[in-house]
Amino acid sequence: MDVSPTDLVGHGFLKGMAGEQLAALATCGAGYRSYAEGEFICREGANADEFHLIEHGLVALETTAADRRSLVMVTLEGGEVLGWSWMFPPYRWYFDARAVAATRTLALNGALVRAACQNDPQLGYELTRRIARVVIERLQATRLHALDLYNTHPPRK
Amino acid sequence: MIERTDPWIPESYHIVKTWREIPDTFTMELKPTDGREIPRFASGQFNMLYVFGVGEIPVSISGDPSQRGILTHTTRAVGAVSRALCDLKEGAVVGVRGPYGSHWPVAEAMGKDVVIAAGGLGLAPLRSAVREIVAARERFGKVSVLYGARTVEDILFRRELEGWRARFDLDVYVTVDHADAAWRGSVGVVTRFVARAAFNPEQVVAMVCGPEVMMRYTARELEKCGVVDDAIYLSMERNMKCAVGLCGHCQFQQFFVCKDGPVFAYHRVKSLLAKGEI
Fold first, then answer.
1. pLDDT of residue B55 exceeding 90
2. Which of A6, B10, B149, B235 is most exposed by smallest CB count within 10 Å?
Protein backbone atom coordinates (compact mmCIF):
# COMPACT_ATOMS: atom_id res chain seq x y z
CA MET A 1 0.00 0.00 0.00
CA ASP A 2 1.37 3.44 -0.95
CA VAL A 3 2.05 5.80 1.91
CA SER A 4 1.18 9.47 1.65
CA PRO A 5 2.46 12.37 3.77
CA THR A 6 -1.00 12.38 5.36
CA ASP A 7 -0.39 8.85 6.64
CA LEU A 8 2.89 9.94 8.17
CA VAL A 9 1.58 13.06 9.89
CA GLY A 10 -0.79 10.96 11.96
CA HIS A 11 2.07 9.27 13.79
CA GLY A 12 3.20 10.80 17.06
CA PHE A 13 6.88 10.62 16.13
CA LEU A 14 6.38 12.89 13.12
CA LYS A 15 3.71 15.15 14.61
CA GLY A 16 4.21 18.78 13.60
CA MET A 17 6.78 18.04 10.90
CA ALA A 18 6.66 20.33 7.85
CA GLY A 19 4.64 19.11 4.86
CA GLU A 20 7.58 19.05 2.46
CA GLN A 21 9.62 17.01 4.92
CA LEU A 22 6.80 14.51 5.30
CA ALA A 23 6.53 14.36 1.52
CA ALA A 24 10.26 13.60 1.30
CA LEU A 25 9.96 10.82 3.88
CA ALA A 26 6.94 9.34 2.11
CA THR A 27 9.18 8.66 -0.89
CA CYS A 28 11.72 6.77 1.26
CA GLY A 29 10.33 3.33 0.61
CA ALA A 30 7.59 3.83 3.15
CA GLY A 31 5.16 0.98 3.52
CA TYR A 32 2.87 -0.67 6.01
CA ARG A 33 3.91 -3.90 7.69
CA SER A 34 1.75 -6.25 9.70
CA TYR A 35 3.08 -8.75 12.21
CA ALA A 36 1.18 -11.53 13.88
CA GLU A 37 1.54 -12.21 17.58
CA GLY A 38 4.92 -13.85 18.19
CA GLU A 39 6.37 -12.85 14.80
CA PHE A 40 9.80 -11.24 14.79
CA ILE A 41 10.07 -7.79 13.26
CA CYS A 42 13.85 -7.93 13.29
CA ARG A 43 16.56 -10.20 14.61
CA GLU A 44 19.73 -9.30 16.44
CA GLY A 45 22.65 -8.98 14.01
CA ALA A 46 20.50 -8.79 10.86
CA ASN A 47 20.70 -5.84 8.47
CA ALA A 48 18.93 -2.81 9.88
CA ASP A 49 17.67 -1.59 6.55
CA GLU A 50 14.39 -0.25 7.93
CA PHE A 51 12.96 1.46 10.94
CA HIS A 52 9.37 1.34 12.06
CA LEU A 53 6.78 3.79 13.25
CA ILE A 54 4.48 1.60 15.34
CA GLU A 55 0.84 2.28 14.51
CA HIS A 56 -0.67 -0.14 16.98
CA GLY A 57 0.22 -3.30 18.82
CA LEU A 58 2.95 -4.18 21.28
CA VAL A 59 6.59 -4.91 20.43
CA ALA A 60 9.14 -6.44 22.79
CA LEU A 61 12.83 -5.61 22.50
CA GLU A 62 14.54 -8.71 23.75
CA THR A 63 17.65 -10.79 23.78
CA THR A 64 18.33 -14.45 24.37
CA ALA A 65 20.96 -16.47 26.17
CA ALA A 66 21.49 -20.20 25.95
CA ASP A 67 20.95 -20.69 29.69
CA ARG A 68 17.92 -18.42 30.04
CA ARG A 69 14.63 -17.75 28.34
CA SER A 70 14.33 -14.67 26.17
CA LEU A 71 14.59 -11.57 28.31
CA VAL A 72 12.48 -8.56 27.48
CA MET A 73 14.18 -5.22 28.08
CA VAL A 74 11.33 -2.94 27.14
CA THR A 75 8.12 -2.94 25.17
CA LEU A 76 7.07 -0.35 22.63
CA GLU A 77 3.53 0.58 21.70
CA GLY A 78 1.52 2.50 19.14
CA GLY A 79 2.91 6.00 18.60
CA GLU A 80 6.50 4.94 19.33
CA VAL A 81 9.41 4.41 16.98
CA LEU A 82 11.34 1.17 16.67
CA GLY A 83 14.95 1.22 15.58
CA TRP A 84 17.87 3.59 15.22
CA SER A 85 20.45 1.03 14.10
CA TRP A 86 19.77 2.19 10.52
CA MET A 87 21.46 5.51 11.29
CA PHE A 88 25.04 4.37 11.82
CA PRO A 89 27.33 1.65 10.45
CA PRO A 90 27.36 -1.31 10.59
CA TYR A 91 23.54 -0.90 10.18
CA ARG A 92 22.71 -4.06 12.10
CA TRP A 93 19.95 -4.62 14.63
CA TYR A 94 21.28 -4.70 18.15
CA PHE A 95 18.38 -6.66 19.68
CA ASP A 96 15.49 -8.83 18.59
CA ALA A 97 12.11 -7.14 18.22
CA ARG A 98 9.04 -9.37 18.50
CA ALA A 99 5.38 -8.58 18.16
CA VAL A 100 3.81 -9.47 21.52
CA ALA A 101 0.39 -8.71 20.06
CA ALA A 102 -0.77 -8.23 16.48
CA THR A 103 1.18 -5.17 15.37
CA ARG A 104 1.05 -2.80 12.43
CA THR A 105 3.93 -0.49 11.58
CA LEU A 106 4.79 2.07 9.00
CA ALA A 107 8.29 1.14 7.84
CA LEU A 108 10.80 3.48 6.23
CA ASN A 109 13.89 2.46 4.30
CA GLY A 110 16.98 3.47 6.26
CA ALA A 111 19.32 3.98 3.30
CA LEU A 112 16.79 6.14 1.48
CA VAL A 113 16.12 8.22 4.59
CA ARG A 114 19.86 8.73 5.10
CA ALA A 115 20.17 9.87 1.49
CA ALA A 116 17.21 12.22 1.86
CA CYS A 117 18.79 13.71 4.98
CA GLN A 118 22.08 14.12 3.15
CA ASN A 119 20.29 16.05 0.40
CA ASP A 120 18.23 18.15 2.78
CA PRO A 121 20.12 19.08 5.97
CA GLN A 122 16.99 20.66 7.44
CA LEU A 123 15.21 17.33 7.15
CA GLY A 124 18.30 15.66 8.58
CA TYR A 125 18.35 18.05 11.54
CA GLU A 126 14.64 17.67 12.20
CA LEU A 127 14.75 13.89 12.07
CA THR A 128 17.92 13.71 14.20
CA ARG A 129 16.35 16.04 16.77
CA ARG A 130 13.28 13.83 17.02
CA ILE A 131 15.32 10.67 17.31
CA ALA A 132 17.58 12.30 19.91
CA ARG A 133 14.49 13.04 21.99
CA VAL A 134 13.41 9.40 21.79
CA VAL A 135 16.93 8.27 22.70
CA ILE A 136 17.03 10.62 25.71
CA GLU A 137 13.62 9.47 26.93
CA ARG A 138 14.66 5.84 26.58
CA LEU A 139 17.98 6.51 28.29
CA GLN A 140 16.25 8.22 31.22
CA ALA A 141 13.78 5.34 31.49
CA THR A 142 16.67 2.87 31.33
CA ARG A 143 18.45 4.68 34.17
CA LEU A 144 15.35 4.51 36.34
CA HIS A 145 14.96 0.88 35.34
CA ALA A 146 18.55 0.20 36.39
CA LEU A 147 17.82 1.55 39.88
CA ASP A 148 15.61 -1.49 40.47
CA LEU A 149 13.27 0.69 42.55
CA TYR A 150 11.00 -2.08 43.75
CA ASN A 151 13.78 -4.30 45.00
CA THR A 152 12.95 -4.98 48.64
CA HIS A 153 16.51 -6.00 49.41
CA PRO A 154 18.57 -3.00 48.28
CA PRO A 155 22.30 -3.01 48.97
CA ARG A 156 23.24 -1.87 52.47
CA LYS A 157 24.44 1.72 52.88
CA MET B 1 -13.66 2.63 81.43
CA ILE B 2 -11.11 3.21 78.69
CA GLU B 3 -11.92 6.17 76.42
CA ARG B 4 -12.31 4.70 72.96
CA THR B 5 -10.83 7.72 71.22
CA ASP B 6 -7.61 7.72 73.23
CA PRO B 7 -4.97 7.65 70.49
CA TRP B 8 -2.52 5.71 72.65
CA ILE B 9 -4.73 2.76 73.48
CA PRO B 10 -4.95 -0.01 70.87
CA GLU B 11 -8.30 -1.61 70.29
CA SER B 12 -8.55 -5.40 70.08
CA TYR B 13 -9.28 -6.84 66.67
CA HIS B 14 -9.26 -10.44 65.60
CA ILE B 15 -8.02 -11.65 62.26
CA VAL B 16 -10.95 -12.85 60.18
CA LYS B 17 -8.90 -13.83 57.16
CA THR B 18 -5.31 -13.54 56.07
CA TRP B 19 -3.66 -14.48 52.78
CA ARG B 20 -0.57 -13.91 50.73
CA GLU B 21 -1.09 -11.65 47.75
CA ILE B 22 2.40 -12.20 46.30
CA PRO B 23 5.38 -13.98 47.84
CA ASP B 24 6.38 -11.26 50.33
CA THR B 25 3.12 -9.34 50.70
CA PHE B 26 -0.03 -10.27 52.55
CA THR B 27 -3.49 -8.92 53.24
CA MET B 28 -5.46 -9.38 56.41
CA GLU B 29 -9.07 -8.63 57.25
CA LEU B 30 -9.76 -7.60 60.82
CA LYS B 31 -12.88 -7.18 62.95
CA PRO B 32 -13.22 -5.57 66.37
CA THR B 33 -13.41 -8.27 69.03
CA ASP B 34 -16.39 -6.54 70.65
CA GLY B 35 -18.42 -6.65 67.41
CA ARG B 36 -18.78 -2.90 66.90
CA GLU B 37 -18.22 -1.12 63.59
CA ILE B 38 -14.71 -0.11 62.62
CA PRO B 39 -13.95 3.61 62.90
CA ARG B 40 -14.55 5.69 59.79
CA PHE B 41 -11.46 6.18 57.70
CA ALA B 42 -10.59 7.94 54.48
CA SER B 43 -8.60 6.48 51.59
CA GLY B 44 -4.90 6.90 52.17
CA GLN B 45 -4.97 6.84 55.97
CA PHE B 46 -3.13 4.25 58.05
CA ASN B 47 -3.48 2.36 61.30
CA MET B 48 -0.86 1.28 63.82
CA LEU B 49 -1.03 -2.51 64.07
CA TYR B 50 0.29 -4.01 67.27
CA VAL B 51 1.53 -7.60 67.48
CA PHE B 52 1.49 -8.19 71.22
CA GLY B 53 4.93 -8.89 72.60
CA VAL B 54 6.63 -7.96 69.35
CA GLY B 55 5.84 -4.37 68.48
CA GLU B 56 3.77 -1.92 66.50
CA ILE B 57 4.02 -0.74 62.89
CA PRO B 58 2.10 1.64 60.63
CA VAL B 59 0.17 -0.10 57.87
CA SER B 60 -1.92 1.65 55.25
CA ILE B 61 -5.54 0.67 54.89
CA SER B 62 -6.18 -1.07 51.58
CA GLY B 63 -9.92 -1.67 51.94
CA ASP B 64 -13.02 0.17 50.91
CA PRO B 65 -13.92 3.14 53.18
CA SER B 66 -17.63 2.42 52.73
CA GLN B 67 -17.25 -1.08 54.13
CA ARG B 68 -17.76 -0.56 57.87
CA GLY B 69 -17.64 -4.15 59.02
CA ILE B 70 -14.13 -5.18 58.00
CA LEU B 71 -10.79 -3.45 58.23
CA THR B 72 -8.40 -4.47 55.46
CA HIS B 73 -4.65 -4.01 55.54
CA THR B 74 -2.00 -5.03 53.04
CA THR B 75 1.71 -4.91 53.78
CA ARG B 76 5.01 -6.56 53.09
CA ALA B 77 6.59 -9.02 55.51
CA VAL B 78 9.94 -7.34 55.74
CA GLY B 79 10.74 -6.57 59.42
CA ALA B 80 10.28 -8.26 62.79
CA VAL B 81 6.75 -6.94 63.38
CA SER B 82 5.45 -7.34 59.84
CA ARG B 83 6.83 -10.90 59.70
CA ALA B 84 5.17 -11.70 63.02
CA LEU B 85 1.95 -10.16 61.70
CA CYS B 86 2.21 -12.26 58.57
CA ASP B 87 2.68 -15.42 60.65
CA LEU B 88 -0.50 -14.84 62.67
CA LYS B 89 -3.38 -17.16 61.90
CA GLU B 90 -7.07 -16.47 61.57
CA GLY B 91 -8.61 -15.86 64.96
CA ALA B 92 -5.48 -14.30 66.43
CA VAL B 93 -5.90 -10.94 68.17
CA VAL B 94 -3.94 -7.81 67.31
CA GLY B 95 -4.04 -4.24 68.58
CA VAL B 96 -5.19 -1.45 66.29
CA ARG B 97 -4.72 2.29 66.78
CA GLY B 98 -6.09 4.71 64.25
CA PRO B 99 -6.96 5.71 61.64
CA TYR B 100 -4.32 8.40 61.35
CA GLY B 101 -2.97 10.88 58.88
CA SER B 102 -4.11 12.77 55.82
CA HIS B 103 -5.98 11.16 52.96
CA TRP B 104 -6.23 11.09 49.18
CA PRO B 105 -8.24 14.01 47.75
CA VAL B 106 -10.99 11.82 46.34
CA ALA B 107 -13.78 14.31 47.04
CA GLU B 108 -11.75 17.17 45.53
CA ALA B 109 -11.24 15.07 42.39
CA MET B 110 -14.96 14.81 41.66
CA GLY B 111 -15.79 16.37 38.30
CA LYS B 112 -12.18 16.08 37.20
CA ASP B 113 -9.98 13.55 35.46
CA VAL B 114 -7.97 11.34 37.78
CA VAL B 115 -4.55 9.76 37.35
CA ILE B 116 -3.63 7.08 39.88
CA ALA B 117 0.03 6.08 39.62
CA ALA B 118 1.37 3.31 41.83
CA GLY B 119 4.60 1.40 42.07
CA GLY B 120 5.06 -1.89 43.89
CA LEU B 121 3.33 -1.98 47.27
CA GLY B 122 2.21 1.61 46.62
CA LEU B 123 -0.94 0.20 45.11
CA ALA B 124 -2.16 -0.87 48.57
CA PRO B 125 -3.00 2.63 49.94
CA LEU B 126 -4.30 3.65 46.51
CA ARG B 127 -6.65 0.69 46.19
CA SER B 128 -9.01 2.33 48.67
CA ALA B 129 -9.12 5.44 46.49
CA VAL B 130 -9.68 3.46 43.29
CA ARG B 131 -12.52 1.53 44.92
CA GLU B 132 -14.08 4.78 46.08
CA ILE B 133 -13.83 6.26 42.60
CA VAL B 134 -15.19 3.11 40.96
CA ALA B 135 -18.16 3.14 43.36
CA ALA B 136 -19.07 6.65 42.19
CA ARG B 137 -17.61 6.40 38.69
CA GLU B 138 -20.09 8.80 37.08
CA ARG B 139 -18.86 11.64 39.30
CA PHE B 140 -15.38 11.63 37.81
CA GLY B 141 -13.97 12.37 34.38
CA LYS B 142 -11.45 10.09 32.72
CA VAL B 143 -9.73 7.81 35.19
CA SER B 144 -6.35 6.22 34.51
CA VAL B 145 -4.63 3.70 36.75
CA LEU B 146 -0.90 3.30 36.06
CA TYR B 147 0.82 0.49 37.90
CA GLY B 148 4.40 -0.74 37.84
CA ALA B 149 5.80 -3.81 39.56
CA ARG B 150 9.25 -5.37 39.64
CA THR B 151 8.31 -8.66 37.99
CA VAL B 152 5.15 -10.38 36.78
CA GLU B 153 5.10 -12.37 40.04
CA ASP B 154 5.17 -9.10 42.01
CA ILE B 155 1.98 -7.65 40.53
CA LEU B 156 -0.21 -6.83 43.49
CA PHE B 157 -4.02 -7.23 43.37
CA ARG B 158 -3.70 -8.77 39.92
CA ARG B 159 -7.26 -10.03 39.75
CA GLU B 160 -8.61 -6.66 40.82
CA LEU B 161 -6.46 -4.88 38.23
CA GLU B 162 -7.91 -7.20 35.59
CA GLY B 163 -11.38 -6.40 36.87
CA TRP B 164 -10.73 -2.67 36.62
CA ARG B 165 -9.40 -3.08 33.09
CA ALA B 166 -12.45 -5.08 32.09
CA ARG B 167 -14.75 -2.22 33.10
CA PHE B 168 -13.83 -0.12 30.04
CA ASP B 169 -14.49 3.10 31.95
CA LEU B 170 -11.01 2.95 33.48
CA ASP B 171 -7.76 3.08 31.54
CA VAL B 172 -5.50 0.60 33.27
CA TYR B 173 -1.82 0.36 32.38
CA VAL B 174 0.28 -2.35 34.01
CA THR B 175 3.99 -2.69 33.42
CA VAL B 176 6.83 -4.67 34.95
CA ASP B 177 10.53 -3.93 35.12
CA HIS B 178 11.71 -7.45 34.40
CA ALA B 179 10.04 -10.15 32.34
CA ASP B 180 10.74 -13.00 30.02
CA ALA B 181 9.06 -13.67 26.70
CA ALA B 182 6.15 -15.47 28.37
CA TRP B 183 4.77 -12.12 29.64
CA ARG B 184 2.37 -10.59 27.16
CA GLY B 185 2.15 -7.16 28.69
CA SER B 186 4.28 -4.05 28.92
CA VAL B 187 7.86 -3.94 30.16
CA GLY B 188 9.44 -0.70 31.32
CA VAL B 189 9.16 1.92 34.01
CA VAL B 190 5.71 3.14 35.03
CA THR B 191 6.62 6.82 34.59
CA ARG B 192 6.44 6.55 30.80
CA PHE B 193 2.72 5.83 30.95
CA VAL B 194 1.98 9.31 32.24
CA ALA B 195 2.32 10.82 28.78
CA ARG B 196 0.03 8.13 27.34
CA ALA B 197 -2.76 8.50 29.86
CA ALA B 198 -5.77 10.49 28.67
CA PHE B 199 -6.44 13.49 30.90
CA ASN B 200 -6.97 17.22 30.76
CA PRO B 201 -3.93 18.67 32.55
CA GLU B 202 -5.97 21.67 33.68
CA GLN B 203 -8.71 19.51 35.18
CA VAL B 204 -6.97 16.57 36.74
CA VAL B 205 -5.99 15.28 40.16
CA ALA B 206 -3.05 12.88 40.31
CA MET B 207 -2.44 10.51 43.23
CA VAL B 208 0.94 8.85 43.34
CA CYS B 209 2.34 6.22 45.70
CA GLY B 210 5.45 4.08 45.47
CA PRO B 211 9.18 4.29 46.09
CA GLU B 212 10.19 7.92 46.57
CA VAL B 213 12.28 8.06 43.39
CA MET B 214 9.38 6.66 41.39
CA MET B 215 7.04 9.31 42.86
CA ARG B 216 9.50 12.11 42.12
CA TYR B 217 9.88 11.15 38.48
CA THR B 218 6.18 10.48 38.06
CA ALA B 219 5.48 13.98 39.39
CA ARG B 220 8.00 15.39 36.90
CA GLU B 221 6.30 13.56 34.03
CA LEU B 222 2.96 14.98 35.18
CA GLU B 223 4.52 18.45 35.25
CA LYS B 224 5.84 17.93 31.72
CA CYS B 225 2.26 17.20 30.67
CA GLY B 226 1.12 20.52 32.15
CA VAL B 227 -0.26 19.38 35.50
CA VAL B 228 0.28 21.97 38.25
CA ASP B 229 2.01 21.06 41.51
CA ASP B 230 -1.03 21.43 43.71
CA ALA B 231 -3.00 18.91 41.65
CA ILE B 232 -0.44 16.20 42.37
CA TYR B 233 -0.52 14.24 45.65
CA LEU B 234 2.11 11.85 46.97
CA SER B 235 2.05 9.45 49.90
CA MET B 236 5.30 9.66 51.84
CA GLU B 237 6.72 6.87 53.95
CA ARG B 238 8.84 7.45 57.02
CA ASN B 239 9.56 5.60 60.25
CA MET B 240 6.32 6.34 62.09
CA LYS B 241 6.13 5.36 65.76
CA CYS B 242 3.63 7.41 67.77
CA ALA B 243 1.36 8.30 64.81
CA VAL B 244 0.23 11.53 66.49
CA GLY B 245 3.12 13.89 65.79
CA LEU B 246 4.86 13.71 69.14
CA CYS B 247 7.84 11.38 68.95
CA GLY B 248 9.56 12.90 65.93
CA HIS B 249 10.62 9.61 64.35
CA CYS B 250 8.91 10.49 61.10
CA GLN B 251 10.05 14.08 60.94
CA PHE B 252 10.51 15.24 57.35
CA GLN B 253 12.00 18.71 57.61
CA GLN B 254 9.13 20.81 59.02
CA PHE B 255 6.57 18.00 58.70
CA PHE B 256 5.64 14.97 60.71
CA VAL B 257 4.65 12.39 58.13
CA CYS B 258 2.25 10.65 60.53
CA LYS B 259 0.27 13.82 61.26
CA ASP B 260 0.84 16.16 58.30
CA GLY B 261 0.94 13.23 55.86
CA PRO B 262 1.27 10.58 54.71
CA VAL B 263 -0.55 12.17 51.76
CA PHE B 264 0.98 15.51 50.78
CA ALA B 265 0.27 17.89 47.96
CA TYR B 266 3.39 17.81 45.80
CA HIS B 267 4.07 21.54 46.15
CA ARG B 268 4.52 21.10 49.92
CA VAL B 269 7.28 18.50 49.65
CA LYS B 270 8.71 19.07 46.18
CA SER B 271 11.80 20.92 47.39
CA LEU B 272 12.51 18.20 49.96
CA LEU B 273 12.27 15.19 47.68
CA ALA B 274 15.69 15.53 46.10
CA LYS B 275 17.47 16.08 49.43
CA GLY B 276 19.25 12.95 50.53
CA GLU B 277 19.98 14.06 54.07
CA ILE B 278 16.40 14.46 55.35
1. yes
2. A6
